[in-house]
Amino acid sequence: MTKVSSKHLLGIKDINADDVHLIFNTADTFKEVLNRPIKKVPSLRDVTIANVFFENSTRTRLSFELAEKRLSADVVNFSAGSSSVKKGETLIDTVNNILAMKVDMVVMRHPNPGACVFLSKHVNCSIINAGDGAHEHPTQALLDAYSLREKVGDLKGLKVLIAGDILHSRVALSNIFCLQMLGAEVAVSGPATLIPKHIHSLGVKVMLDFREALQWCDVVNMLRIQMERQDIQYFPTLREYTMQYGLSRQLLEEIGKKDIIIMHPGPINRGVEITSDLADGEDSIILNQVENGVAVRMAILYLLAGKPD
């Protein structure tokens, strides 16, 4: 198979395991390219890609832009803050105006869940979801799983804990779908107020006791508290949250847990959900996630552009 089964990447639940393995194998090739002295290939030289961000982003946007430029694509950057969206223009009109300039592909981040799915039904180009509200963030889940594959090989039977603000996290949902598709066991941990009510229906363990959850897992993916999405107070204080759900070397030593793989999608709130010594330590693959993000996004862009025939 040389093509993914979908025209778009709207969410992990819309692709299959064969698609994921194809993306990973293609990313392996592009990772070799990124380690060369000249880190550029002409694969998408005749393709124009628009990065359409209706929400602030640093890492995801830079990673996509770098991936596009490494593939020699023409890149158009759109920010809603300085656009006609502020004048009342609709999402469809905004994107259709961009497509009228002969853009071939749109990478979109939007604060509303389902915005990418809605758009895909109304415009005639490939859409890549770079995060839609608290719904999905498929490229983050793919680069997370790719980074784990690089570290441990087959993910089948691997016990992965996702800890923190599960309720407001698009990373958590996409990771759950992707890890389960690849055969991993997934558990979540955090304050009960930050665990979605029906998450059991996804076949996920809920472990409110963080120490017990750490004893169970092989990998822990720490999520930050998303204050910008919270309209009420979900726990008493940040200090209390850190005492209950913060990851530190002292905690790991107390429970006798060694060789746990530590992940974080960023941005890190150091000293809140994780201490700096662990984030920067030898068991952390956080910087590997950042590096692999470019290769994985290169693979996704290349495959959706329909070049491999």
Low-confidence residue ranges:
none
Number of strands: 9
Number of helices: 11
Total separate domains: 2
Please identify which CATH superfamily of the largest domain we are dealing with.
Answer: Aspartate/ornithine carbamoyltransferase
**Helical amount:** 25-40%
Average pLDDT rating = 91
| CATH level 1 class label of the largest domain | Alpha Beta
CATH topology of the largest domain: Rossmann fold
Please trace the helix and strand order, writing H or E for each element.
HEHEHEHEHEHEEHEHHEHH
Structural class: alpha/beta
The percent range for strand residues is 5-15%
Q: How far do the termini sit from each other?
A: 10 Å
Largest sheet: 5 strands, parallel
CA radius of gyration: 19 Å
* Main sheet: strand order: 7-6-5-8-9
Shape: globular
CATH architecture designation of the largest domain: 3-Layer(aba) Sandwich
Characterization of this structure:
This protein is of the alpha/beta class and 309 residues long. It folds into two domains: 140 residues, Rossmann fold (3-Layer(aba) Sandwich); 149 residues, Aspartate/ornithine carbamoyltransferase (Rossmann fold, 3-Layer(aba) Sandwich), CATH 3.40.50. Helix content is 38%, strand content 14%. The chain is built from eleven helices and nine strands. The strands form two sheets. A five-stranded parallel sheet has the order 7-6-5-8-9, sandwiched between helices. Strand 3, helix 4 and strand 4 form a beta-alpha-beta unit. Helix 1 crosses helix 11. The longest helix has 19 residues.
List keywords for this structure.
single chain; 309 residues; alpha/beta; Rossmann fold; 2 domains; 4-stranded parallel β-sheet; 9 strands; 14% strand; globular
